[in-house]
Design goal:
alpha/beta; TIM Barrel; Rossmann fold; Immunoglobulin-like; 3 domains; 11-stranded mixed beta sheet; 8-stranded parallel beta barrel; 16 helices
Length: 681
């Protein structure tokens, strides 16, 4: 396994640091280093929003203050993740070059004064960013304290200026070759929407009461283009800093449940994936457990993009300032949330921010150091506790990985297509929620999970879940068939195999693309249920499960029926089937079932297939069990996301890493975390 940060191969603890806001207060900068040491911080991210300080006027770079900061940090054993400042351009640039500001969906060019409102296509902005990145790299790449490049900050948004429209048309020309081929793939004869030339093509209009733009292929391609255009911008940033020293890895901090880009497309651009995790804690057991599950899923997404440890780049030490209600973390929650990230494969716990800003937008956003300016606060002590725990685990954990036997297909392009589909439930198709239901069932069992897309290799898993695989991109059906033929177990669901990658319906019966043969069923119709309406799925042994939203009327061709509908005119028709295919099995769940169904179904499958679990026995409600491994040792992370004490039984051969003593069970306080070493091979 390659090191995430080869110049400093350790678990990172730190966060966003903005000394540029305090250059007139050397006493504060000195105090900050003292406080970092007290909080067991070994790394900080610097210069993220410092462009105006780095280039106060065009072409005049002021790097002396930054060199002094990085040097002082290094002398005190604190390393630097050095950012490129492209996420927040200086005002002088925005005013002098208005073309770099984005144009929104209404055609209005945005004003100066915001971050993340730059055009990714603009040659001017690319030139300015490349020049800044090159200058930074030439000055700091050889500094021993610089261990990682942090490219920009939370890449986001889209631009619809004339430059972007022209780039989009060129992207389409490259993909389709000629306008007649595009018209055929977009099915533009519908509503007389045929394009006569490339100049007639514009980005799709924002979603209206009638749904998306009627040309669904255009909608998908626009999002693909935006992903590629931003990816090209990231490459430009990456290449500029790597020119000085290619050995320093680059990362970009991605975001939770991010809809507008396909992050998996950037897997070969970034050396390390990082992301910003800000759970909306509610302060009660049910809500906090669900939120822990949601963020566990996205930890797994980030790890799965490159199939190696990621970095938690931002989290909040106390309360944010931008959530609908900014709840304080309950005692212990900082440790539990942090160790959850590490358990899912993060090699860092970092925060936004180290010291609170005195003014402007985020002056009330939580930080390691509050406005009071010292470390005698609950948030600071919580952060120090996390730092101590990371130091304890560092040597054993750094080279460990998460190695699941189970994968869930959660494909961004499929999600875009589903949301554009216009039927059968325009009040909510709930693809992401369907993924979460299956994930939550596995989470409660302590089953490690990879999150993959349709371009991923799935051959190494024992069990693959592919809910609502509405859009089949070219080649994925062959991956699924090969996986099952070689002995894998596949779980598919309703709304699978309806369209191809250009959002054209498969002909010849659903599921299309060869999946009809794999699952051994034919989907004749889809019944959309109203919110609050339900049917039931009755198993062979008479157990009943609630089903909602979508119910497919399927016919078992080669498949065996193992569950039927309990009511309505399709009572008794197949609702759950299994087909033998080669050495494996392909299961099909024809309706939207809940977590209770998947807990029972997947629990039996995980057991039969002998899929890896963090612990063999039952795990109490609200306790998360994560598993990291080396070739010689396994580590179990136990987090209690309820406020109530929990007891977890352990198998033989376990050691509590806090004490170094053998342990047969663990007593977890509310919002507590314990790490166990087990199963020395």
């Amino acid at each position: 396994m390659s090191s995430v940060t080869p110049r400093f191969p350790h678990l990172l603890h730190g966060g966003d640091y903005n000394p540029d806001q305090w250059l007139d207060r050397p006493d504060i900068l000195e105090k900050d280093i003292e406080l970092m040491k007290a909080a067991h911080i070994n790394c900080v991210s610097v210069a993220i929003f410092a462009w105006a300080k780095l280039e106060p006027e065009e072409g005049r770079y002021e790097f002396g203050w930054l060199e002094e900061v990085i040097g002082n940090l290094y002398k005190n054993g604190i390393y630097t993740v050095l950012a490129t400042p492209s996420g927040a351009k200086p005002r002088w640039m925005s005013e002098k070059y208005p073309e770099i500001r984005r144009v929104d969906g209404s055609g209005k060019r945005e004003e100066s004064g915001k971050r993340h409102n730059h055009c990714y296509t603009s040659p001017v902005y690319r030139e300015k960013v490349k020049a800044m990145n090159t200058a930074l790299a030439e000055r700091f790449a050889k500094h021993p304290g610089v261990i990682l490049w942090h490219l920009s900050n939370e890449y986001g948004g889209e631009c619809r200026c004339e430059l972007c429209k022209a780039a989009f048309r060129e992207w389409l020309k490259k993909k389709y070759g000629d306008i007649s081929a595009l018209n055929k793939q977009y099915w533009t004869d519908f509503w007389a929407q045929t394009y006569n030339n490339w100049e007639e093509i514009n980005p799709p209009t924002p979603r209206t009461m009638w749904g998306a733009d009627p040309i669904h292929g255009l909608c998908i391609d626009w999002r693909r283009f935006v992903t590629d255009q931003v990816g090209d911008f990231i490459k430009m940033e990456r290449d500029a800093v790597k020119a000085a020293d290619p050995s320093i890895p680059v990362t970009a901090n991605l975001m939770y449940d991010f809809y507008f880009y396909n992050y998996f497309k950037w897997r070969d651009i970034l050396d390390v994936v990082s992301w910003d995790s800000y759970p909306v804690w509610v302060g009660n057991a049910k809500g906090d457990v669900e939120e822990a599950q949601n963020h566990a899923l996205w930890h797994d997404v980030m790890r799965s993009i490159k199939q190696k440890p990621f970095l938690l780049m931002e989290s909040c030490p106390s309360a944010t300032n931008w959530q609908p209600v900014s709840r304080l973390k309950r005692p212990g929650m900082q440790l539990a949330a942090s160790m959850s990230a590490v358990g899912h494969g993060s090699n860092s716990v970092q925060y936004f921010q180290f010291r609170k800003s005195r003014g402007s937008s985020e002056k009330f956003h939580g930080a390691v150091v509050d406005h009071v300016g010292h470390g005698d606060t609950r948030a600071f002590r919580d952060v120090a506790e996390v730092g101590e725990r990371l130091e304890l685990l560092d040597k054993a954990l750094y080279n460990s990985e998460v190695r699941p036997d189970v994968a869930i297909v959660f494909d961004t392009e499929n999600r875009w297509a589903l949301d554009n589909a216009q039927g059968p439930r325009n009040c909510g198709i709930h693809y992401a929620e369907a993924v979460r239901d299956q994930y939550r069932a596995l989470w409660q069992m302590g089953v490690p999970v990879d999150i993959v897309d349709e371009e991923s290799d799935i051959s190494g898993y024992r069990l693959v879940l592919a809910p609502m695989l509405y859009m089949l991109r070219a080649g994925f059906e062959e991956k699924l068939k090969a996986f099952v033929k070689d002995g894998g177990a596949l779980v598919g669901t309703y709304h699978t195999g309806l369209v191809n990658e250009n959002d054209l319906c498969h002909l010849g019966g659903w599921p299309g693309g060869g999946l009809r043969e794999l699952f051994g069923i034919w989907n004749e119709e889809i019944d959309g249920l109203w919110d609050g309406e339900e049917n039931s799925l009755i198993t062979e042994d008479g157990k009943s499960y609630r089903v909602t939203e979508l119910c497919e009327l399927i016919h078992a061709e080669e498949a065996k029926v193992i569950g039927t509908y309990g009511s309505d005119f399709y009572k008794g028709m197949p609702a759950w089937t299994v087909a033998e295919y080669g050495k494996g099995q392909a299961y099909y769940v024809a309706a939207r079932a809940g977590v209770d169904f998947y807990s029972d179904f997947l629990g039996a499958l995980v057991s039969d297939l002998q899929c890896k679990r963090a612990l063999p026995g039952e795990i109490p409600f609200g306790v998360e069990a994560c598993l990291r491994e080396t070739d010689t040792e396994s580590f179990v992370f136990l987090q209690n996301f309820t406020g109530e004490p929990k007891t977890v039984a352990l198998p033989e051969g376990c050691t509590d890493m806090r004490t170094g003593q053998p342990a047969a069970k663990v007593e977890l306080r509310g919002y507590d975390s314990v790490t166990i070493a087990k199963n020395i091979k």
